[in-house]
Amino acid sequence: MASIQGNQTQKKDEEAVIPMSPSSQSLNSSIISLTILAVVELETILDEFEIVDFIRNVCIPSNARFSCIVDVDEKGVPCWKKVNNVKVEDHITVPIFPKGLSIMDYDEKLREYVSKIAGEQLKTNQPLWEIHVVKYPNLNGEGSVVFKISHAIGDGYSIISTMYAAFRRVDDPSLPLALPNISVRVNGLEKRSCWNFFPKCMNSISDMARSLLKASVLEDSKSAVRSGKLGVEFEPIAISSISISMDSLKRVKSKVGGTVNDLITGVIYYTIHLYMLRKGDISRGKNMNLLVMFNMRMLKGYKNIEEMMKANICGNHVASLVVPVPCISGEQKVDPLYFVSKAKKIMERKKNSFYLYVTIPFIKVLTIIRGSKGLSKIVHTNFKNTTAMVTNLIGPKEKLSMAGHPVGSCYFIVAGIPQSLSFTTASWMGQLRLTATMEKNFIDSQLFYSCMQEAFENIFQAACGGDISC
Q1: pTM
Q2: Fewest C-beta in 10 Å: which of 41, 115, 157, 371?
Q3: Which stretch of DSSP H or E encloses residue 446?
Q4: What is the CATH number of the domain that holds 448?
């Protein structure tokens, strides 16, 4: 009997230990440790007692990693270890701000608070997530909830799939959230004629070579948006964001063609150009690149998030594309649509390649050769040697609620990136939120914010004419 009980106990312990993927290991190491901070701005105030029930009964059951800690197995390899009773209260913080401030001041306090906790390490003796309940107004609501989650738990898709399971529609909570179309056309496997095969192979070789160089020795130029400082990921950050209506984006897209992502890339190009002009730094002659993160699940042919959720592909499935930034002279009178056309051309060229399809096998080979720490070094260097990172999330079209509280707006950032500048975009309820995370004592966040606003306004007027508010 004792032997049977011993075997059952051993089996239970083995089941409680889950292997950690090389990608998750590489994003939670002593070399690089990334966290995702999602800010949900609510129209009504949510208290900590409501959030405890919400996390315990909704969020934790929807994602197994929310009830796991990082452990080391008998071979010394990091793994996930199941925690039977997660003490949700230990993960919740309620910050105290000064009383009597204006909404503008409280909105700034919220950004300052998010910047502060972005630089703090998650506790390693409990599951790698925190919840911060902010009971003060902001420009989009009466309160906020900040989710801080280790990137090792999963990528943006893993987080958004949890939100789809946990959040509800305001108009009818019994109905599921509408799941947006995520289909993508990558030309690498569409046209199979011999005339197209050779340039695709050449593009693939070029993309792979550029990626390897950026992950090793080839470093972007220092500029007004890239300090090149060692340990920049530990410097204080500032956050600026603008909201753009999807209708305005679609109007511009109908005039200039391409995709919404092409348009946003053009806005980012133009923002960088305007900021460097304002700072007296000419980009011409410099080597500048964006590191664009790409969801590899979409290459499997899924048409919407619902199909990916049914496939239950958790973890980190992201590849990075090194995308050059157009560097031009300092003339003030530059056509804003130039940056959109350059983005379209560059992204079409990137799609006309097999690079994305060979990335995952290549990462597996690198992991076998160099291990997870070697992969961490490659990831860190790839970020460090480029000017800025760009990543995005696709949210629901309808107005949604969290624990019965209507959501006014949402945005997210990725902390711990060894860059002076990074961009995140999130589309929610007919709005796209473009957020820039900056090295606080190097980039002027107020000036950069005005450049982001000006960039889209100028692009809209050049494409559609008239005032963007019309």
Answers
A1: 0.88
A2: 371
A3: helix 445-464
A4: 3.30.559.30
